[in-house]
Design goal:
The chain has about 650 residues and is an alpha+beta fold. The protein has a 20-stranded antiparallel beta sheet, sandwiched between helices. It has a four-stranded antiparallel beta sheet with strand order 23-24-25-26. A two-stranded antiparallel sheet has the order 21-22. The longest helix has 25 residues, at about 535-560.
Length: about 650
C-alpha cells in the first residue's frame, strides 16, 4: 500500500500551462518561504517523471500502477464512508499547489507562524462543498460565510476558503481574506516583483516548480536567538558568522525546468566565505577523462595554493575568528611534526584536483580503499615531485619505510615501502596530473587518461552545463542501481552512462548550482525502478517457487549421489514435469529452461551463499536458488560477486 500512497502523493506534488496569477503575486516580498508546484495535468506529469526520462532503454509503462492507485483510492473512500465521492477523480483535478509562510517569529522559544496554502483544482466548488459540509456536520469547523469556514483542532486552528478554481488554507481569517482579496491582481511590493526573488530564481517569471527561502530573515532570527544565549557562545557566534559574512545572505532559490535544476544562494554584497571559496574556474575536462564506469566523482577547478592563503588569512585573524591563537599554535606544531610547510604542499595543486570512486569488477562500491583515487593537477611537475618526495621520505623514515621511485615511459611512480605492510597507496606523475591511489585503481585511471578505456566524455555527461565552473560532480545511476536487489531488474534496462552531473559556480556574492538533468528525473528513475519491480511481482513469485523446487531436488540428488546433477532432466524435471519461464507466456510459445550451477570449489558448510540454480533472464532481477533449498533475490553486484567464486552457468 505504501507504493499506492506514494503514487497518489506524486499526483499532488507534480507540477503545462501555468496560470499567470500566482500566490507569489499576492504575498509580501518579506515572506519567509514560498513553494510552488504546478503541472496542469497530474497524470501526464506523473507518466513523464516515471517514464525514466531517457535514462532507460525504453520508457517505463506505469499504466498498471495508476490502475492500482485508483483501486486503492476507491478502497480508501469506501473505508472512510465517502459515498459517491471519487478520490481518484479529485486527485486528478489537482493542477498544483502553492504555499507561503508570510510571518515567522519566536516568542519565548515558541514559533508564531502566519501561512497560506493554495490548491489549484478544476473541482474546487465540489470539493469545498463536500469537505466543508462534512467538517461542519462533525462539528470540526464553523461556517463563516458561503465560501469560508474556520476549523479548530485543539490549540490549532485555520481558516479555509474557496476562490474560483482555488481552495485556500490560511493561518487565520485576516491572512485568508487578505490573500483572496489580492487574487486577480498584482500586489504592490509582492514577492513576484522582488529583485531578490528574481535573482534567486534566475528568472523574471515564476517557475512551475520552485522554492524560495528568505535567508536574511532567517539569519536575523538566528542572530536574535544567539543573543539570548549570553556569554562567550553568543559572542563567538556573532564574531564567526559576521566574519564569514553570513548576515549578508539574502535568499536561497530553487527551480526546476525541463532540462535542469537550478539552486542559488545569493547575498546583498560580497560574502567573505564565498570570496575564500572562489579560487578559480575552468572547464569539465577533468571529469571527462575519468573512466566511463565511475560511480561518483568531483572535479574542483580552483587553486589549492590560493585557497590555503585565503583560509589561513581568515583563521589567523583574531578580529574575525576568535580561536585564531589556538589555530596558529596547532599549525606551527603540525608543521614541525611533519617537517614541511603546509603551504608548500598546497602549492603543488595549482590546477585543482579531482576524486573518483570506481566500482570493482563485481560492480560493488563498498571497497573504498581499493577503488578510490585522487588526481591533483599541477603547473610545475618537477617542483611537485620534489615536494612530495621530501614529504613522503620524512613521513616514512620514522616508521622504518622508504620511498621507491621508478619510471615507466613518461610516468614516474612513487611507492611507499613499509615493513609488514604489503598494500600501500602510491603516486604516479602523468604529465600535469598526479594520481594518488592503490596501484590497481591508479592504473584504471591511467588507462582512461591514455584512451585505453572509455571515459565519461563518451556519454557527454556534462551536456547542458556551463562551460566554466568552480566544481563539477557526477553520480552514476547505473552504479547506484547495482547495489540493491529491488533494483536488479531495472539495472538491466538503464543506459550506460546514465547519471547526473552538476556544475557549481562560486562568486563573491553568490553560489549557483546547475544539474545536467532535473532532480525529479533522477528520482523518477528510481521510482520507475520500483514500478518495474512491482509489475513483475506475480511472475517473480512463480519463478521463485520453481527455483525453490529445483534447489530442493538438487540438494536431495547431491546427498544421494555425492555429485552435482548434470541437467534438469536428471532431477526429473522433464515432459509434463518440466519447469520453465516466463510464467505468463502464450500457450503456443515454448518456455525457456532454468540453469543449474556447479557447486565445485564451494564451501560445503556455507549453504546460504552456494547457488545451485538461476533464472537467466535478468529482466526479472537476479533470482537464485541455494543449496539449502531457499531462494534469494540478489543485487547485480552481489550476483557478480558470487560468480567470482562459482563457475557461471553456460
Amino acid at each position: 500500500m505504501h507504493r499506492l500512497f506514494l503514487s497518489a502523493l506524486t499526483l499532488v506534488l507534480l507540477v503545462s500551462a501555468a496560470p499567470s496569477q500566482t500566490l507569489a503575486h499576492s504575498v509580501s516580498a518579506n515572506s519567509l518561504l514560498y513553494i510552488r508546484s504546478y503541472s496542469g495535468d497530474p497524470i501526464e506529469a506523473m507518466k513523464q517523471v516515471f517514464s525514466g526520462g531517457g535514462l532507460y532503454d525504453t520508457p517505463v509503462d506505469i499504466d498498471g500502477i495508476i490502475d492500482m492507485m485508483d483501486e486503492g483510492l476507491q478502497q480508501a473512500g469506501d473505508m472512510m464512508d465517502l459515498g459517491d465521492i471519487n478520490l481518484g477523480k479529485w486527485i486528478r483535478s489537482i493542477q498544483g499547489y502553492e504555499a507561503a509562510i508570510t510571518r515567522f517569529e519566536l516568542t519565548d522559544g515558541f514559533p508564531e507562524v502566519d501561512f497560506v496554502i493554495v490548491m489549484h483544482t478544476t473541482m474546487a466548488d465540489e470539493i469545498y462543498s463536500l469537505v466543508s459540509g462534512k467538517l461542519i456536520e462533525d462539528a470540526a469547523a464553523d461556517e463563516v460565510s458561503e465560501n469560508e469556514m474556520e476549523m479548530s483542532m485543539g490549540e490549532f486552528s485555520m481558516n479555509i476558503g474557496r476562490h474560483d478554481d482555488m481552495i485556500v488554507f490560511a493561518s487565520d481569517q485576516r491572512q485568508l481574506r487578505e490573500t483572496m482579496k489580492d487574487f486577480g491582481s498584482v500586489k504592490q511590493g509582492s514577492l513576484a516583483q522582488s529583485p531578490t526573488f528574481k535573482r534567486a530564481m534566475g528568472s523574471d517569471d515564476i517557475p512551475k516548480y520552485c522554492a524560495f527561502i528568505n535567508a536574511k530573515h532567517l539569519m536575523k532570527i538566528a542572530r536574535e536567538e544567539a543573543g539570548n544565549w549570553g556569554g562567550n557562545d553568543a559572542g563567538s557566534f556573532e564574531q564567526i558568522a559576521g566574519g564569514l559574512g553570513l548576515f549578508n545572505l539574502a535568499a536561497v532559490g530553487w527551480n526546476e525546468q525541463d532540462t535542469t535544476t537550478h539552486l542559488a544562494v545569493i547575498s546583498d554584497g560580497n560574502i567573505p566565505l564565498f570570496e575564500m571559496l572562489d579560487c578559480g574556474k575552468s572547464g569539465h575536462e577533468a571529469l571527462d577523462v575519468l573512466p566511463a564506469d565511475t560511480a561518483f566523482a568531483m572535479a574542483w577547478n580552483g587553486s589549492a595554493d590560493t585557497l590555503w592563503k585565503k583560509v589561513t588569512t581568515f583563521l589567523m585573524d583574531d578580529t574575525r575568528f576568535p580561536m585564531a591563537p589556538m589555530f596558529k599554535e596547532r599549525l606551527i606544531s603540525l608543521q614541525k611534526q611533519i617537517g614541511i610547510r603546509l603551504e608548500d604542499i598546497a602549492a603543488v595543486a595549482t590546477g585543482g584536483m579531482s576524486m573518483a570512486m570506481l566500482p570493482d569488477e563485481r560492480g560493488r562500491i563498498d571497497r573504498f580503499q581499493e577503488n578510490f583515487f585522487v588526481t591533483v593537477r599541477t603547473s610545475e611537475s618537477q617542483k611537485a615531485q620534489a615536494t612530495i618526495a621530501d614529504l613522503m621520505t620524512k613521513m616514512l623514515t620514522p616508521r622504518g619505510g622508504e620511498l621507491v621511485v621508478t619510471n615507466e615511459g613518461d610516468r614516474t611512480w612513487f611507492r611507499a615501502k613499509l615493513p609488514n605492510e604489503r598494500d600501500t597507496p602510491c603516486m604516479v606523475f602523468d604529465g600535469d596530473g598526479i594520481i594518488i591511489a592503490m596501484e590497481s585503481a591508479a592504473r584504471r585511471a591511467l588507462d582512461a587518461r591514455s584512451g585505453n578505456f572509455p571515459t565519461l566524455a563518451r556519454y557527454g555527461v556534462c551536456k547542458g552545463l556551463p562551460q566554466q565552473a568552480s566544481l563539477f560532480a557526477y553520480v552514476s545511476l547505473k552504479a547506484a542501481m547495482a547495489q540493491q536487489s529491488e533494483l536488479a531488474a531495472a539495472f538491466q534496462r538503464v543506459r550506460d552512462g546514465a547519471g547526473i552531473a552538476t556544475a557549481i559556480n562560486v562568486d563573491p556574492d553568490r553560489i549557483v548550482i546547475r544539474t545536467s538533468k532535473p532532480i525529479t528525473q533522477i528520482l523518477g528513475a528510481f521510482g520507475a525502478a520500483g514500478v518495474i519491480h512491482e509489475t513483475q511481482s506475480k511472475e517473480r513469485r512463480v519463478i521463485r517457487k520453481d527455483l525453490g523446487t529445483i534447489a530442493k531436488a538438487y540438494r536431495e540428488y547431491k546427498a544421494k549421489n555425492g555429485k552435482d546433477p548434470a541437467s534438469l532432466s536428471a532431477l526429473g524435471f522433464t515432459g509434463d514435469k518440466a519447469l520453465s519461464y516466463p510464467p505468463n507466456r502464450p500457450a503456443n510459445v515454448p518456455g525457456k529452461s532454468y540453469k543449474l550451477v556447479s557447486t565445485e570449489g564451494t564451501d560445503p558448510e556455507d549453504e546460504w551463499s552456494t547457488i545451485v540454480v538461476v533464472c537467466p533472464d535478468s529482466r526479472f532481477g537476479r533470482i537464485v536458488g541455494l543449496i539449502n533449498g531457499n531462494v534469494r533475490s540478489l543485487s547485480e553486484s552481489q550476483f557478480r560477486a558470487q560468480f567470482t567464486k562459482q563457475r557461471a552457468p553456460k
